[in-house]
Amino acid sequence: MGRKGGRRSQGALLFGMDRRHFNGLAATGLMGLNLRPQAWFDLLSDQNLEVDGPRLSQRMRRLASFGANAAGGIDRVAFSDANIEALDWVAGLLVESGFSPSIDFAGNLIARKPGSSSELPPIMLGSHIDSVPGGGNYDGQVGSMGALEVAATLADAAYTTRHPLEISIFSNEEGGKTGSRALAGEVETFELDIVTASGFTIADGIQRLGGNPDRLEELRRRDGSVEAFLELHIEQGAVLDADEIDVGVVEGIVGIMRWTVIVEGSTNHAGTTPMDRRSDAMVGAARFIDLVHTTARRMPGRQVATVGRLEAEPGAPNVIPGRVTMTLEIRDLSMAGIER
């Protein structure tokens, strides 16, 4: 929805952005990074290069068609048929831009293109294209299609960077950050048995993508093996949008911890059990949820805490819940903040 005064939504801004504006925002973001700046200037050394805005918009719309739902969003969860079909389409576009795509052991789509100096480590661009159930058309997709547009623009200009380039589409980002964490050597064995939103375990899902869950340890990248990584991402917190700031540079990556919380009570008949004799698990859960919210707001810092899923048992309208199971997720820029 547009704002009063004619300000466009994030979607309209992306699809209606002209090439010069996009280039300016991209250059601002690149030059704001504190990661070996010369590597980024290698990508920007020809100031006449401009992305093709209509092509980027068209590809964004095409990607949104894989797993599209009736509400206008997407159900392209990791390891689903729609996810696999979208990856095949992306791989074809990368081939057209002179990249050599392949699926690694974690199911990541990694595409490489040599640079003029083969001894230099690669510059990596990319994001993910899997979604949450009922997800939107920008999370992950902006970074993925933005990386592909960089690839296509360089190919159109027959321009070769000094550093090799890698475009990465990470697997199962929404269901456990499996692909990106595999490159950091952080996937634990027990995670492979977790059932994802697609109905497949992570191990089975990786195999569906063409990976090998038994060889994830081989994927770990050593320090210095990548010169730098850049991901263009849509803002999800509306802070920049509310302040009318076009682009921001990430200051850090938040840590995430999740727990399963169980509240026990006593199941009983809702119509005959007096209020003063109830042990209602749902009431306890409600108090816990309120405590999570108020504690996160009162503590200094930028932490966020969420109870995103709740299930009452037995789940009947005329029965006092005897057990409630819920999730708790806390995010902060430091693990110490989460542990507080």
Task: Give a brief rundown of this model.
With 340 residues, the chain is an alpha+beta fold. The protein has helices at residues 10-16, 19-31, 37-44, 53-64, 81-96, 141-156, 178-183, 202-209, 239-242, 281-298, 335-339, and strands at 100-103, 109-113, 123-128, 165-170, 228-230, 255-264, 268-269, 304-306, 310-313, 319-320, 323-332. α4 (53-64) packs across α6 (141-156).
How are the secondary structure elements laid out?
Elements: H1 10-16, H2 19-31, H3 37-44, H4 53-64, H5 81-96, E1 100-103, E2 109-113, E3 123-128, H6 141-156, E4 165-170, H7 178-183, H8 202-209, E5 228-230, H9 239-242, E6 255-264, E7 268-269, H10 281-298, E8 304-306, E9 310-313, E10 319-320, E11 323-332, H11 335-339
Parallel strand pairs: 3-4, 3-5
Antiparallel strand pairs: 1-2, 2-4, 6-11, 7-10, 8-11, 9-11
Helix pairs in contact: 4-6
